[in-house]
Amino acid sequence: MSRLIMFHARECPHCRVMMPLVDQLEKEQKIRFEKLEIWHDEKNADLMRSYRPVIAPKCGGQLRTPTFFNPETSAVLCGEVPYDKLKEWALSQG
Amino acid sequence: MKKFYRCFVCGDIHYGVKPPEVCPTCLVKNAYVEISSAEAERTMEPVMTTMTRDEFRRVIERFAEKNEFQVNPDTAKVEMLFDGIFANEQNHGFKYCPCRLRTKDFNEDLKLVCPCHFIVHETYKGKTDGECWCGLFVRRKK
Ligand code: SF4
Ligand SMILES: [Zn+2]
Q1: How distant is the Cα of B92 from the closest Cα of chain A, in angstroms?
Q2: What pLDDT does A94 receive?
Q3: Portion 64-83 of A in contact with B at CB < 8 A
Q4: B134, A13: Cβ pair inside 8 Å?
Q5: Chain A partners within 8 Å of B78 (Cβ)
Q6: B42 and B63 inside one domain
Q7: B12's torsion region: left (phi>0), alpha (psi -120 to 50) or beta?
Q8: What is the tens place of the pLDDT at every residue in A36-84?
């Protein structure tokens, strides 16, 4: 299973919605997300910024939260999505 | 490049690429004279304040009133966003958007100061139930 990151922000309503879905997915599948908060942790913020060239073009030109990211393949899924879409994306990461 | 200008009649300060042709306050034409940023700062110093949450709430409500959108009636969501907006101002100097990350390019990041120009974004433009990235503003129902 490759390393998957969830960039999230503490006061972001979309992350508030997605967090329980991520927890549920982790319980159901052998998937783990590294959850990195980006507005209250500059190290995490710098890490997300370092991926800006690959992330932003796929997210409306922005560094949005939440952004699900596979650093190995540069696969990106951003914003609030239905559970099935998150699951499908995560499982396809191998 | 943006510069500061001062109305030679009423003393209003304008910061922008061009000064207003007509002063919005005293309505005098061609009244703006360029000044240095140091002069502008000294002009503003005695009145420098920060904004409380309630003040900011009133400000964005007034801003939305004249537009086709409104502040989200979901008050719990708005409160959470205010937590983020005010934490960002405290920690990073500006009321940056709580659901996007700043790039550290100063001018680029001014586009992330709340309220941002969200009406051109994909979450709002052309959508009947459009909202800003975070859902702080939602299109007003007809
Ligand atoms: S997306 Fe909404 S909350 Fe974020 S900066 Fe724009 S107006 Fe403010
Ligand atoms: Zn004037």
Answers
A1: 9
A2: 74
A3: 64-65
A4: yes
A5: none
A6: no
A7: beta
A8: 999 999 999 999 999 999 999 999 899 999 999 999 999 999 999 999 9
Check: CB of residue B114 under 8 Å from CB of residue B85: yes
Q: How confident is the model at residue B141 (pLDDT cuts 50, 70, 90)?
A: confident
Q: Give the tens place of pLDDT for each residue, A8-40.
A: 999 999 999 999 999 999 999 989 999 999 999
Average pLDDT value for residue range B122-138: 94
| Atom number, ligand 1, closest to the C-alpha of residue B96 | 5
Distance CA B84, CA B90 (A): 10
- Same domain, yes or no, for B62 and B87? yes
Domain holding B25, by residue range, is 3-46
Q: Is the CB of B136 under 6 A from ligand 1?
A: yes
Looking at the fold, whether B132 and B77 belong to one and the same domain comes out as yes
Query: In the CATH scheme, what architecture does the domain A4-92 have?
Result: 3-Layer(aba) Sandwich (3.40)
pTM: 0.93
Q: What amino acid occupies position A37?
A: E
Which tokens go with B121?
């974004």
Whether residue B131 is found in the same domain as residue B65: yes
How many helices (H) and strands (E) are present in chain B, helices listed first? 4, 5
CATH number at residue B34: 2.20.28
Q: Which residue of B has its CA nearest to A37?
A: B101
